[in-house]
Design goal:
Elements lengths: L2 H7 L6 H19 L9 E4 L6 H9 L2 H10 L1 E5 L2 H19 L8 E3 L22 H11 L3 E6 L20 H12 L12 H12 E9 L7
Parallel strand pairs: 1-2, 1-4, 2-3, 4-5
Length: about 230
């Protein structure tokens, strides 16, 4: 509905086969390395760029019914920066839960926020203001920031440049994240530096700093970044 914003934000949606592969792989690695599964308590799961909620919906399908009520209320988290996908994600997630459990429950852990701006929970960031549509949204962001995140999963934006330099549609800057990239990825790498500040590099840096020390990052990327 908004191609210019989609280009700037790096929007693309993920096939279910890939989503399911990532969920099952994450569960396998959680069990192998930490003796946990996604269904266990104290495993908080965050999709930092949820789009229309595909990852959270498929995680709901994946988690056994007996674990889902607690997990849905307390330990599934999602962020979205664009308002229309945010509302669609809320509807999709709540519908998926209702279909599985036979009862409706509001999904209170989705935040209308730009994840890369939300550096208040990061050890390196200083941020005084909250942002969003309402005090309820600000409270949701604060609640998420107080959580120890064990799994960060999703398909973050990964545009390096606008498609057409004449469009005056430049990707925005994220000073806190870009500072961390300069201190780490750039300082310690001999790789080409020109694309290191693109969106998925920023999401990787954010995820590495946000994750609790025992956990899994499962993000789609390309092989050149790795």
């Amino acid at each position: 509905y908004n191609p210019k914003a989609a280009d700037r934000l790096g929007v693309i949606y993920t096939p279910n086969e890939i989503v399911n592969f990532m969920i099952e792989s994450t569960d396998y690695l959680l069990h192998k390395h930490f003796g946990k599964t996604m269904a266990d308590k104290n495993v908080d799961i965050l999709d930092p760029a949820t789009g229309t909620g595909t990852f959270i919906c498929d995680i709901i399908e994946h988690i056994p019914k007996q674990n889902l009520i607690y997990k849905y209320k307390n330990e599934l988290h999602a962020n979205e920066v664009a308002i229309l996908p945010y509302y669609i994600a809320s509807l999709n997630i709540e519908y998926t839960y209702k279909q599985k459990m036979g009862l409706y429950a509001e999904f209170e852990n989705i935040c209308f926020v730009d994840t890369l701006d939300n550096t208040i929970s990061m050890y390196y960031g200083t941020q005084t203001g909250m942002f969003g549509l309402s005090s309820e949204n600000a409270n949701r962001i604060k609640k998420q920031n107080d959580k120890k995140i064990s799994v960060i999963i999703g398909n973050p934006p990964y545009n390096a440049n606008q498609k057409n330099e004449n469009e005056n549609n430049k990707n925005r800057e994220y000073p806190n994240i870009d500072k961390r990239i300069k201190e780490t990825f750039i300082a310690k790498s001999t790789a080409q530096k020109t694309k290191v500040y693109d969106m998925y590099a920023r999401f990787y840096r954010w995820a590495m700093d946000r994750l609790d020390k025992n956990g899994i990052i499962a993000l789609i990327t390309n092989r050149s970044f790795i």
